[in-house]
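Quick one: co-fold with phosphoenolpyruvate.
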Amino acid sequence: VNRKRLLANWKMNLTLDQAAEWTRRVVAALPPPEEVSAMVLPSFTALDAVRRARGDAPLLIGAQDGYPQGHGAVTGEVGIEQLKDAGVSAVLAGHSERRRLLGEPDPLVAKKVEAYVGAGLTAVLCVGETEAERQAGHAEAVLRRQIATGLEPVAESALCQVLVAYEPVWAIGTGHPATPDAASEAAETIRAAVRARFGEERADALEILYGGSVDVTNLAGFLAASGIDGALVGGASLDADGFVAMMKAARG
Ligand code: PEP
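Sure, here it is.
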């Protein structure tokens, strides 16, 4: 695909006013959706503020997490029906901050992917090795395991509802991104694992994003890297003007 995806993951940041202001500024500068597909992933509290500020503009709204059930007696969680009601079209699964800080294991990540896809949403499966795993030479094995487990419940016909984000843990929020070549290599490892399970055609069609200290100075390099279809941007996405500059860079 020529169109690049740009995802703004706000993590646990921004007030309602800031969220609405960010959205107004970004919407005013949105590139045509056939050139750049832009998505913002606010905190649950800001989903509605973002949706209102977005209006009919082609800015997609994603959620950073979701409980793998429509609704019900699960205190503190947000269900998939609630997310859809709030205008969400995609949900992250397995972000490394949740794996690390909240102990989310691979099987729960797989349940989430299954539930999101089953509800007609896009699942953004996040995978990536830690620094220690990389040092030990286990990076490829970790990616293969996370892909095998995370996609285990996904039927071949539903793979088009999955995006994979390669996010090496050592690159997230550190200011030390991977190189575009390393991101390409990881993307090939991911694609090979997908090919083995789903076949050539599905693997070729899978969109893979890179995430980890992406900013306006390095974005173009990642988007030009072979096998990389977009970027998941955390810290550098919080500033609306910065995100607008990245959308410009993504148009190439
Ligand atoms: C992320 O939130 O997934 C991320 C990649 O963060 P950052 O861009 O801040 O490294």
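If it helps, The chain has a mean pLDDT of 97.
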